[in-house]
Amino acid sequence: MFNLMSNCCSWVSKIQEPIRKVTILVVGLDKAGKTSSIRGIVDTGPTHSCIRNELRVENYLVTLLDAGGSPESRGTWRELYAEAHGIIFVVDSCDRQRMKEAREVLADLLKQPRVAGKPILVLANKQDKMNALVGSEMIEILSLEKLVNQSRSLCHIEPCSALMDLRRWSDRKTLRGLRWLLRAVCLDYPELCARVAQDSRRPLESRKREKKGKSGKIHRKTKTYLDTCLNFALSFLFCYLGLNVPI
Ligand code: GDP
Known about the structure:
Keywords: GTP-binding, Magnesium, Metal-binding, Nucleotide-binding. The chain has about 250 residues and is α/β, with parallel strands linked by helices. Helix content is about 50%, strand content about 15%. The protein has a domain at about 20-185: 3-Layer(aba) Sandwich (Rossmann fold), CATH 3.40.50. The chain contains ten helices and six strands; from the N terminus they run H-E-H-E-E-H-E-H-E-H-H-E-H-H-H-H. Residues about 45-50, about 215-225 and about 245 have low confidence and may be disordered.
């Protein structure tokens, strides 16, 4: 009876929790299994042309942004950083030849000001394959601990197989990883929302211009300072030589 009561209470409190909108950016090298992972998570299955996939997980309305992973399309990721509350980085655990490239891409991603500090889930995908690296090997080979410490991001690695998750609908590792990410986002939700609102208001170009303006100002200030020093040195020299030349 007591169990029933407490279950009812937790059920009622869950219902009363507000619905939270969360946007997650899904990135990684091409062929790592990003689209397959999203298909494993989103029951309805996304269409190929659509990069926005929406689903409801508990009290979260989640938008998964599927970004292309080829070197040419990685440039478009930066346009999506602003609106993301968290990141999913998908790695092919069997592709040892491209592990260095994956680490470099991950390192660069975590250095981005609009990404640093946001929670990140690493999906160590394709675990169904014989030669897949296990979680601990992936942590080492990607220097994961060092990278996330530098960017101060909460991080979790989930070994998974998107292909297997597509076949079974219980105990999906991709979904388990997403649940962790949502909990991590929830810990910092007001701050992350404030960041998203602020970064989304300012387009990338204006930020670039701002930076340029700032560096221009610094350049001008340095130039004025150097001119003053030069004038001072010249007047000192002329005084020393007994000349009275106005500068
Ligand atoms: P994306 O380019 O990162 O979106 O990668 P895709 O989702 O298109 O997957 C690339 C290839 O890897 C496809 O042929 C998938 O069938 C395959 N693939 C994706 N996930 C898995 C997995 O968990 N196991 C295996 N064996 N193959 C996978």
